[in-house]
Design brief:
By secondary structure, the chain is α/β, with parallel strands linked by helices. The chain has 7 helices and 7 strands. It starts with a strand and ends with a strand.
Length: 193
């Protein structure tokens, strides 16, 4: 694979990690991040989410939720999700803190609010490398079923981008073809490192 990819959602738990897991299995150079202030997972009610700091190991979250209510968190898919996540990487990472991770060629976001945060963050960084980065938003609802569909769509699009000589020359055609084929509207922006 010739390009380096980042998958970004709000908490680096569901959508970004489903895509990270799938792309990693397919041999892509991929990382994943969240843009939120904290990592939030569903709790016993909407008013009681489980909140963790970025950097808290997925295994710690798994053990904590299994101790709190194993039936609830198994039934709602959180424990299996955390188990998958811990097989991909140790802990959720925050996009805004990733400058030391080098640069990416393509960044996928799965929610417009996250897309805006990534584009703004890239805009505010020093542009020392003057290297282009393509940021694409593929809108995906934050549930397990939609995350799996979104990951497969992201994989399809990554494979199409990989097949180009240089994405800068053909991105308009690649994205419009993808939109027609999958009936999904994409947002994209070109930023710099």
């Amino acid at each position: 694979m010739k390009f380096r990819y980042a998958m970004v959602c709000s908490s680096n738990q569901n959508r970004s990690m489903e895509a990270h897991s799938l792309l990693k299995k397919q041999g892509f150079d991929v990382s994943s991040y969240g843009t939120g202030a904290h990592v939030k997972l569903p709790g016993p009610s909407l008013r009681e989410p489980n909140v963790y700091e970025f950097g808290t190991p997925y295994k710690h979250m798994f053990d904590d939720l299994r101790r709190k209510d194993p039936d609830l968190y198994k039934r709602n898919g959180i424990l299996p999700m955390l188990k998958r996540n811990s097989s991909v990487k140790t802990a959720p990472q925050r996009w805004q803190d990733n400058a030391a991770d080098a640069s990416f060629d393509v960044v996928f976001t799965f929610e417009e609010k996250v897309f805006d945060m990534v584009v703004e963050d890239l805009h505010n960084r020093d542009h020392a490398l003057m290297k282009t980065v393509l940021v694409i938003n593929l809108e995906v609802k934050d549930n397990h079923e939609e995350a799996a569909i979104g990951a497969r769509l992201a994989l399809d699009l990554c494979q199409e981008i990989e097949a180009t000589e240089s994405w800068e020359d053909s991105i308009d055609d690649v994205l419009s073809g993808f939109e027609k084929q999958h009936r999904r509207k994409l947002l994209y922006s070109i930023s710099y490192y």
